[in-house]
Specification:
Length: about 475
Amino acid sequence: PARTLVAQARPVPQDFVLGVATAAYQIEGARHVDGRTDSIWDTFAHTPGAVVHGDTGDVACEHYTRYAADVALMQSLGMQSYRFSTSWARVCPDGGPLNAKGLDFYERLVDSLVEAGIAPWLTLYHWDLPQALEDRGGWTSRETVDRFVDYSLAVHDRLADRVRTWTTLNEPFCSAFLGYTAGMHAPGRTSPAAGLAAAHHLMLAHGRVVQELRVRDASLELGLTLNFTVADPVDPSDPRDVDAARRVDGQMNRIFLDPVFRGSYPVDLLEDVRHLGLEDHIMDGDLAVISTPIDVLGVNYYNGEAVGHERPGSALDDALNGGRRTRSPFPAADSAFRHPRGLPVTAMDWEIQPEGLTRLLVRLHEEYAGPAAVALHVTENGAAFDDVADEEGFVDDRCRTAYVRAHLGAVLDAVDAGVPVRGYFYWSLLDNFEWAWGYAKRFGIVRVDYDTQVRTPKASALDYARIIATRQLLPAGDAAADDEGTG
Ligand code: GBH
């Protein structure tokens, strides 16, 4: 392939924050240490057949004991900010009263981040509901909302003087619909109605915590992280494809955006799911709580998709959900199918489509965040590739370097178009427990040898560190030029 003529470096705005993200269950290990009890992910991972190779988070990256070295590693790479999550079952075992030892860990972590000059960004819920609460109905039960408020206030009371940015939920779509409807994530339930009940209660929990934290501390920066797709109809002139794309957009994006920014569920969504009882769970005042103003919207973007009404019968469609035949996560989009577009894909079979991120950010700003004067922040973007390590454990992952450069460039395109995007977190710092895929998929810019727990920065980490140090982004094509595979 022809090289680009001249490598044009592109400046990254000085106030644009660059960092990395992780989540508690995916890296910590230390399952029953210092009083932690099981979450739904411990139960799910220990259920035969639920996770590839029977992998669990029992040990993971041993971050619970290795956090200081991990913070030092981030510092050596120049990270400006670190997005992590706290484990509910560590802080409030069984979802009950506070366990001081659990909070001690997060205090040590936050103190070492602050010491290293890395801004902590705390997520209260990244999918790890205490199992004891699931036993009482989990997110389908309204009582879980109160328990989440108790837990969040406990974390706040200990850390609010050192953590400025607080996000309630990571990707309620996944908690609700991969967990309660598709059965692909914990707790492994397969009910469209349960997914909708869970979605509503998750959002109510978000709104309640924003209200409570705001009252206690007006200086905190509050928000939540949603995952988005960019759903394009396969044939824009075929009303059936347009309808399929509308449903996917409604049931992944607008079902969360509209309650937060407009104080109502989308009318078309309510129509689509009328038979599934969502409205039975909506009490007077709920939408006012959910639409409590936020300061920042976290945007997780991995891929868009072409959606059609016909099953393509393709490998890409079969590859959804890890190749295992689970049911659709969408409560009412049975006739929506993903169609391959011939784009390069990652090791997850997710299409690589950076311009989708630009379009997404522009849309979010114009239709939701802008009118509400809310800043956007890319809280996750990243890729798994089939990494090959040399004898020293080094991975020359040009495809990942190209991926990061291309997506950062897409974010800067949105900034140039007038969208206030404050920063970007790469997912993830480390190779880690990739949910239903276990350790089989690697997203890290740092390789983890799971036999020795040795961390080795990949080529992509060195390139990212260079971007942060120089505030200059090089073209993606340059990194990919010598690469055989994707990019
Ligand atoms: C994020 O979720 C998570 O926050 C993070 O923990 C995880 O490790 C990372 O990404 C990488 O997977 O319509 O059934 O095909 C993943 C985001 C959003 C990706 C939904 C798959 C399509 C679901 N996911 N998406 S489906």
